[in-house]
Design brief:
Blueprint (H helix, E strand, L loop, with lengths): L3 H13 L6 E9 L5 H13 L4 E5 L10 H12 L5 E5 L12 H19 L6 E3 L9 H7 L4 E3 L18 E2 L4 E2 L1 E5 L2 E4 L2 H15 L2 E5 L5 E3 L3 E5 L1 H16 L3 E2 L5 H4 L2 H4 L20 H7 L30 H20 L1
Parallel strand pairs: 1-2, 1-10, 1-13, 2-3, 4-5, 5-6, 7-10
Antiparallel strand pairs: 8-9, 11-12
């Protein structure tokens, strides 16, 4: 029979690698007319056929969405599918950088997109805003709240005011810290493996008790000096593997706006009270005004704006747990210590 010390070591390793079931949202950015249509349509079909809820960020200006029937129709098909959850989210009017806009400019751009998205897709209300370039400033949340929005998803490199409360809020923040690509340069993304993406998911779950995984249509078409309309079969294979890995880990796919509702009760109890972000917002990686003028809407030229997309070499690889995320870890370590004492006494 193995010694108590061996039992203790096995138990310790098991608990330290434990990741509990958590809500995971797929954030599908950059829905727009006449851009990487194969990527957009095939991604919609992928999630629809697997009945995986998805939150899609629609670039909402009348000049950007509403004229391409292929895109409009696949989104409408998803909305009308009774057994599938498709959440439409506002992703700006022309994918503009909200971190450099005034309060009035943000309100105008937000509502322009809001009204057009609701008109094109015949829906009554939008609840979630996905910040273009993953960034925002001090005006953004008050503007969203005044417009009736309940949820915002930026990037965890810009929305750094942890914890992200999971209960008792009038407005929720669920930043993305996982994705299916690295940003290679301004002109394109470099897809990553399912294992790399799953590593990001696991880290965010352990730290924030949820994960938001960002995908872009251009990641799922072939690159030949520019984005094509050829499906990237390899990357769709990696996405299928990632979905299987997330499912095997016991996580639950939900739309962004349902993350709080589906978070484990044991985690929700840690976050009580309405805690709005108060620190200055970091806008690392935001597009400058000049870049925005040069590029316009995502994908409309060969030069793409700089974003603050998560990458595998990003700082969050080294995690320092704060009081918001240490409760479960602390409980596990206490359990390990207690069992260690018991086993040593046997």
């Amino acid at each position: 029979m193995p010694s108590p010390s061996l039992y203790s070591l096995v138990l310790l390793l098991g608990l330290l690698t434990f990741t509990y079931a958590a809500p995971v949202a797929i954030r599908f950015d950059d829905i727009q007319d006449f851009f990487c249509n194969v990527g957009q349509i095939e991604l919609m079909k992928f999630f629809m056929q697997r009945n995986i809820p998805v939150s899609v960020g629609v670039i909402g200006s009348p000049n950007v969405i509403g004229k391409d029937r292929l895109i409009v129709d696949i989104v409408l098909q998803g909305i009308e599918k009774a057994d599938w959850e498709l959440e439409l989210c506002n992703h700006g009017s022309v994918h503009e950088d909200f971190s450099i806009l005034t309060e009035a400019e943000q309100r105008e751009r937000l509502m322009l997109a809001d009204e057009n998205i609701k008109r094109v897709f015949n829906i009554a209300k939008l609840d979630c805003f996905i910040t273009p370039f993953n960034v925002f400033n001090a005006y953004t949340i008050p503007v969203l709240q005044a417009a009736g929005y309940k949820t915002m998803s930026a990037g965890d490199l810009s929305d750094t005011n942890r914890p992200y409360p999971l209960t008792g809020q009038t407005f929720y923040r669920f930043p993305s810290a996982a994705g299916t690509s690295n940003e290679l340069e301004r002109s394109r993304f470099a897809p990553i493996s399912a294992e790399q993406s799953m590593e990001q998911v696991t880290r965010q779950v352990r730290r924030d008790h949820f994960s938001v995984v960002t995908v872009h249509p251009q990641e799922f078409v072939n690159w030949k000096g520019a984005y094509t309309n050829e499906k990237n079969e390899t990357q769709f294979g990696e996405l299928a593997k990632l979905v299987d890995m997330i499912t095997a880990a016991g996580h639950t796919f939900v739309p962004i706006s349902r993350i709080a509702q589906d978070a484990p009760a044991s985690v929700k109890s840690v976050f009580i009270g309405d805690v709005p972000p108060t620190r200055p917002v970091i806008t690392t990686g935001a597009a400058t005004s000049q870049q925005q003028q040069e590029t316009g809407v995502i994908g409309r030229t060969t030069q793409m704006p700089v974003t603050s997309r998560p990458v595998t070499t990003r700082p969050f690889v080294q995690i320092t747990e704060d009081s918001s995320s240490s409760s479960l870890t602390g409980s596990f370590l206490l359990l390990v210590a207690a069992l260690f004492v018991v086993l040593q006494a046997l």
